[in-house]
Amino acid sequence: MHDCQTCSNFYRRYHDKYDLLQDEFRIVRETMDATISAVSSVAQAIFVSGMTIIGGFSAIIFVSFPVLKSFGLITVIDTGFSLISALTILPVIIVFMHRGDKWKRV
Is this structure's pTM higher than 0.70? Predict the structure, then answer.
């Protein structure tokens, strides 16, 4: 009788853990789908505004004043890196942070 209870308890714990894992996978899939949807809907606006800023500050690169020339170059490089990270790295960080929040609650 004792062995049956042990097996039954083990099965219940295993089944509960399996259900929790299935919920986590569903949450991660939903989070990834939501992030992909959000990024795809605003990616064009982010890209166009970033390229506008790059275009505007790249004109400063051709000024003869050295301080403004270096400012324009640094601003163009910084904006380029910010644009790349906003479209690639930031969505990944959002997914991992959201998944981490869900894991802490379980």
Answer: no
